[in-house]
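Q: Could you fold this chain for me?
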Amino acid sequence: MAENYGNDFGGNGRAAWMLAIGSMVALILVLAPIAFYFYNFSTAQISKDPADWSSFGSYVAGTVGTVLAIASVTALIVTLRSTSSQHSRMYALTLRALEKSERQLQLMERQHGVEVFQGFLDELRTSIEKPVRVRNSDVSHDQFFADAYKRLSVSVWARMSNNNQEARRGFDLMLSGGILREMGVSFHAQRTKLWIVINFLDKCESLELRSECLRLARSKLNEDMMFWLCGDIYLEMREVFLRRNDLLFFPKRAARAIERGTESALAQGPPPNGQLEDF
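A: Sure. Below is the predicted structure, expressed as structure tokens.
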């Protein structure tokens, strides 16, 4: 505060000195021509001849008037430059304030978006933590994964073992959906909540918000369950997944099951037959 006071005082002092010096110079420039005139042309008495006063007026107008005009123009230029400088500083300050406000607004919007997404995420996580509904019976996650990944490995083997080479194809998420229908798995309770989460991420315009929400989703959701859930809704949201493939979950157990089925088919061996821990 003392430093700012000193700066203001110093600035005002310099301005006062410049104003005083400028006034003295202007006064000298005004009085000098008049003194020069009286020194050369004046008499002991004040003239009563209008012609003399007319000559003096013409002289003053041509000398002092010119000096005053130049001084006026100079003062106007200085004033305009000072005003322009002040406006530039005010514009810069206003622009910085607006940029700061915009950053704060973006931060608030991102925080609000994360809070909203956190609510959607909690609902989905609570839903997928429940036992899996298979043909009107509830089974544990371990039982479901053991059967589902075994079927996935065999299905990949069947595709890759097709006698028609042109018809051979590997894994895609439609295969996951087919396996779920074959097992009689129902994800009705989870589908809507998953759709809300994926739609939020797909419509998110802020890259920072989207990245943060994706990080939250991958840290809090079960990857294996999300793999099968994404397969369940793949046909409905295929365009979204093709456009945003980072929304897909691909756990290690899925990769091992696909790899085992592919290797067995390429070796022309029998279909894989193992437990979950083998994948």
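A (continued): Residues 125-278 form one domain.
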